[in-house]
Specification:
This protein starts with about 50 loop residues before the first helix and ends with a helix. It has helices at about 50-55, 75-90. It has a domain at about 50-90. The chain is about 25% helix and about 0% strand. It is built from two helices and no strands. The chain is mostly helical.
Length: about 90
């Protein structure tokens, strides 16, 4: 089972962050995903450009690679798309 919680932290000058997680029991392992807030406010009507390098550096590529419940990732993605298409039609 996966449990999620959110903590806002501020980066230190050396790039370190500290996470205090009383939700974790001693010895429990956790996977940490860091989402960094944009430094520049988005302006209405302007789209943010994301390069392939940005996408690779984001941690999104391969983030489910260790999942045992997905199996064939291509088939899994196709199943998700079919389910989403069917939901749209039913509404």
């Amino acid at each position: 089972m996966i449990t999620a919680f959110r903590h806002k932290v501020t980066g230190r000058p050396d790039g370190r962050i500290e996470i205090n997680a009383p939700e974790l029991k001693p010895g429990e392992k956790a996977e940490v995903i860091v989402l960094v807030e944009s430094r520049k406010p988005k302006q209405a009507g302007h789209r943010q450009v994301i390069t392939a390098a940005d996408l690779l550096a984001s941690g999104l590529v391969g983030m489910w690679s260790g999942r045992k419940d997905i199996g064939d990732s291509l088939e899994f993605a196709q199943r998700l798309r079919r389910a989403a298409e069917n939901r749209e039609m039913k509404q």
